[in-house]
Amino acid sequence: xxxxxxxxxxxxxxxxxxxxxxxxxxxxxxxxxxxxxxxxxxxxxxxxxxxxxxxxxxxxxxxxxxxxxxxxxxxxxxxxxxxxxxxxxxxxxxxxxxxx
Length: 100
Description:
The protein has helices at residues 5-37, 46-69, 79-97. It is mainly alpha-helical. The termini are close together. The mean pLDDT is 91.
């Protein structure tokens, strides 16, 4: 084992953990948007509204950058899909290049 590989493995695991958290947050936002759209959840309820606003405020800066690159698709927003694919791609890069 090379010197410093323990640090790189720890760093890679930390990055993978952060990407896992981001993955869960994006999935929660997508699922919640579907539930609100199909009237399963009511965004006027206090806790639902607070969670929705928090997730939207957290993800909108990332989504807006992705939307500026993507072509217009009408009512379908593909930015969460692109973000999830990007997170998955980063996980592959980290596993293949940072872990020993």
